[in-house]
Amino acid sequence: MSKPDHAPWPPGLLLRAAGGLLVLLVLGAVLAVATVLYYSYRLHTAQGEGLKQAADSMNRMVHTETDRLRTANRDGILTDQEIRTALLESGLRSIERTPSSTLIVAKLHADAPGAFSSVDASGCYLFTARTDGTVTAEVLPSCPPPTWPPQPPRTTSS
Question: Concatenated DSSP letters for 4-51?
Answer without folding.
Answer: PSS-SS-TTHHHHHHHHHHHHHHHHHHHHHHHHHHHHHHHHHHHHHHH
